[in-house]
Structure to design on (208 residues):
């Protein structure tokens, strides 16, 4: 678990403290840099929308091969996301990501996961359907695809119960069921314009 030791030392954390361990003044742009620093070269983002974070992951890590997975399909999770809007988001993602090593996969998460071998990814970043069952399903299926010593991470910690967002309920239950310790929450976020926000935050842990 060399990566876990690196993270604990880098942020001067006590792994015996109450979980989750909070990494302060750290946003998911910095998380992208951490993936690069750890030598991660193949990863997946689940839930892409307009491709902003996929672009950040690739820019911070020029040697990364990223799979960006999203059905770009109207759902009842967010009723204002019509199919016309999702088609525009898909086209915007293609334009935004055409200059980086990113493969767009237009499938539902649980269909796309079947295309990946177990222990084949350095990391996965989950930002798809935020409802309870979907979060649990994504964590269950995609964590199998991450190599030991890789990272399982995700977005929108701190929004529960707003916007049909069950991340803050589902993640701790998954962690408890699978006896994951330690795990981390970063307490900063920048939007696509680089403006610092207090939330939503990201969670992650290193796979044993």
């Amino acid at each position: 678990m060399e990566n876990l030791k690196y993270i604990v030392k880098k942020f001067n954390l006590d792994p015996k403290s109450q979980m989750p361990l909070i990494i302060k003044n750290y946003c998911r742009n910095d998380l992208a840099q951490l993936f690069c620093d750890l030598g991660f070269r193949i990863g997946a983002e689940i839930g892409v929308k307009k491709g902003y974070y996929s672009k950040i992951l690739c820019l911070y890590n020029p040697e990364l091969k990223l799979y960006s997975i999203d059905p770009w399909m109207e759902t009842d999770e967010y009723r204002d996301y019509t199919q016309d809007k999702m088609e525009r988001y898909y086209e915007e993602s293609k334009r935004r990501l055409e200059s980086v090593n990113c493969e767009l996969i237009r499938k539902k998460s649980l269909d796309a996961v079947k295309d990946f071998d177990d222990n084949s990814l350095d990391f996965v970043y989950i930002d798809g359907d935020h409802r309870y069952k979907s979060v649990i399903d994504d964590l269950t299926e995609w964590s199998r695809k991450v190599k030991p010593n890789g990272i399982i991470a995700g977005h929108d910690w701190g929004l529960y119960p707003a916007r049909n967002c069950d991340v803050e309920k589902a993640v701790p239950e998954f962690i408890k069921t699978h006896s994951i310790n330690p795990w981390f929450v970063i307490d900063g976020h920048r939007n696509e314009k680089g403006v610092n926000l207090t939330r939503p935050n990201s969670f992650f842990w290193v796979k044993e």
About this structure: The chain has one domain: 2-206.
